[in-house]
Amino acid sequence: MGTLAEEIFSRKVGRPVEAGELVVAPLDLVMSHDTTTPLAVEAFQQLRERVWDPDRIAIVLDHIMPPASIPTAALHQITRKFVKEQGIANFFQEGVCHQVIVEKGLAWPGALIIGGDSHTCTYGAVGAFATGMGSTDVGLAYATGKAWFRVPETIRVEVNGRLPKGSYAKDVILAIVRALGVEGGNYRAIEFAGETIMAMPVGDRMTLSNMAVEFGAKAGLIEADATTLAYLGPRGRAKLAPLAPANPRYEQVVELNVGELGPLVACPPDVGNVKPVEAVEGMPLDEVFIGTCTNGRLEDIAVAARLLAGKRVATHTRTIVIPASFEIYLAALEAGYVRTLMEAGAMVGNPGCGPCIGRHQGTLCAGERALTTMNRNFTGRMGDPTSEIFIASPAVAAVSAIEGRIADPRRYL
Amino acid sequence: MPRIWKLGHNVNTDVIIPGRYNVTTDRASLAKHCLCEARPDFPVGVRPGDVVVGGDNFGCGSSREHAPVALQATGLGCVVARSFARIFYRNSINIGLPILICPELWEQAREGEAIEVDLASGQIRLPEQGLEFAVRPLPPFALAILKAGGIVNLVKERGDLDVAVG
Ligand code: SF4
After folding, report:
1. A34-77 pLDDT tens trace
2. B contacts of A187 (beta carbons < 8 Å)
3. What are phi and psi for residue A46, nearest 5 degrees?
4. How far apart are alpha carbons A170 and A214 in whole angstroms?
5. Which residues, at least 6 apart from A372, have a Cβ–Cβ distance to it below 8 Å?
6. What are the distances in angstroms from CA A320 to CA A57, A345, A354, A398, B103?
7. Is the pTM of this model over 0.80?
8. ipTM of the complex
9. Is CATH 3.30.499.10 the right assignment for the domain spanning A266-411?
10. What is the pLDDT of residues A330-383, one digit of tens each?
C-alpha cells in the first residue's frame, strides 16, 4: 500500500513501511562499472572473501571502453580480476551500463537495485526502485546483498497533452527540471505519470527516469503497464505482474501540460538553466554528440537519421553518434541508420559512454562548445573547464550538426 | 573550544577535494588539499573538532566518497548545513563523519566563533552569541556507525548489515 516506492520497500522487507522509515532491505541486483568497481572492491575486501551472490552482481565495462590510457586499462584489469575470481555471471562489454542492464532484463517491476553510478535511477522506467550509491555501499552490497535506505517521500509528476512535432521525451524532462529546480527532488522519489508518459515506449521513459537525479531525486519511477511487460517479456522476464501505486499519499503533485512544449536547451552551468531553443539558436558549435544512457537509443538514432538523410553535417563541427549498446548498434545497422549517418558525415562510434565524461572520443579543449544529448552540463564535464556544454534532444542535435550552430528542428519538419 | 568555518551554498565535491588532488586514497594527502582552493586557510588552520557550517545543498556534484573522507581526515568534528545533497549525506554517515541538518544556524553563525554540538541530543550552541538550536539528532544507527568508525567496521563487528543497522 502506498506510493510505488513504499509498495516496493514493503514487499522487500515483508511488512508495510512508510516514507521516512529507515530499513535494511535485500537487493535484487548490485551494479558497478569500470570506474566505480575498483574502489568498491577495496571496501568489499575488508569484509569478506566471497561475494554474497555472483548471479546478482552485474559489472559493465563502459565508461572508458576500450581503455584510452594506461591507468584506465589498469582499472579494467582490477575489475576483470574481481569478476573472474568471484565468478560474476553478469559481466558485459557491450555498451553503457544502464542500457545493458535494462536490455538484459536485469531490472523489473518491483526489483530493488543499487548501482555505483548516479544514473542507476534509469531502471525506474521499468518499475524498479533503483538508485546510485557510493563505493562503501556498493562494497557492502557485494558482501551482504543488502543496503540501508530511508524510504523516500514521493513527488508525483503528471504529464498530459500531446507533444507537438519536433518535441520529444528529452524536452519533457528538461521542462520538469525547469519546473522543479535542480534541488527540487532532493531525497525524494519521483513518480512520472500521466497520459503523455504512459503513451511513451520504454526507451523514452528511460530518458525521463535517467534524469531524475539531475534534480536530486533518489529514484524516478514509472508504474509498470502493458508496455513495460511487452518490453521485458522477450528479455527473460515472461511472468511479471503490473505494478501501480495503491492509495498513495504524495508530498507534492506537479502537473504539466506539454501540448505546446517547444524544443528546449539546458545551457551551462547546470541542467536547471533551461531555455527555449530560440533563445540560443545560432550559437556556433565545435562538437555535436548524440548518445549516452539518456539518449543513445534506437528511437534517438532514428530521429537523427531521418533529419540527416541526404544532408551533410557542417565541415567545421565534429559530429559523433554513439549507440548506447551493441543491440542498438545492430538494429541501427539493419535499419540503415548507420549508413545514413555516415553518409551525412557523422562519426558512428563504438557503444559506451564515449565523450560523456570527457576522457576520450570527443574531449573538449579550452573554449570549445558542444551540443549533446547527455544529462549533465557541469563545468568541465567534457574536458577543459572553459568549454561549454548545451543539452538538448537528438532532433536539436541533428539539425545543429547540419548547420554547425544551434538550430531549431521545427524548421526541418 | 571548536570553532566555525563558514561556507556558502552549493559547495560541491569538486570544491571539497579538487579533481586533480582526488587521485589517491591516502588520507593525509586528501586532508592537505581539502577545500584548498576555496579556503586555502582551512587545511592549514583547521583544528580537531572544528565545525564546518554550510548553506543549501552541501556536497552536491559527483558521488565521490573522497569528499567526506577528506573532511574527516582533517579531524573535523562535524558538518552542519541547511541542506545536503543526498549521496554526500549518505557517504558521510557510512564513513562515520558527523553530519547534521540545521536550517537556522547558517544565517546566525559567524566565521571563527565558538560552537558546541551534541550529536546524540541534537543541541547546537553558539555561546558567544548566547544562541541555541535544537535539530533532529542523528538516528541511533548513524550514532552506532560513528562510534564504530564507519559502517564497514560496524558490519565487521556485528557480522551482517541488518544486525549492524537494523
Ligand atoms: S553515458 Fe554518461 S551519464 Fe550515462 S553512465 Fe555513461 S558517463 Fe554516466
Report:
1. 988 998 999 999 999 999 999 999 999 999 999 999 988 999 99
2. 86
3. -75, -15
4. 13
5. A287, A288, A289, A290, A291, A292, A355, A356, A382, A389, A390, A391, A392, A397
6. 32, 9, 9, 10, 45
7. yes
8. 0.89
9. yes
10. 999 999 999 999 999 999 999 999 999 888 999 999 999 999 999 999 878 898
Query: What whole-number distance in Å separates Cα of residue B136 and Cα of residue B102?
Result: 8
Q: Which helix (H) or strand (E) holds A207?
A: helix A202-210
Residue that the C-alpha cell 566505480 belongs to: A36
| Residue of A292, A322, A328 to mutate, ligand 1, most atoms within 8 A of C-beta | A292
Mutational pocket test of ligand 1: of A353, A360, A377, A389, the residue with most ligand atoms within 8 Å of the beta carbon: A353
Task: Give the integer Cα–Cα distance in Å for A101 and A245.
Answer: 24
The architecture of the domain spanning B4-136 is Alpha-Beta Barrel (3.20)
Residues sharing a CB contact under 8 Å with residue B119, sequence separation 6 or more, in sequence order: B78, B98, B100, B137, B138, B143, B146
> At the top level of CATH, which class does the domain A4-256 belong to?
alpha beta
List the beta bridge partners of residue A136.
none
Instruction: Flag if A136 and B56 touch (Cβ within 8 Å).
Output: no
Residue ranges of domains in chain A: 4-256, 266-411
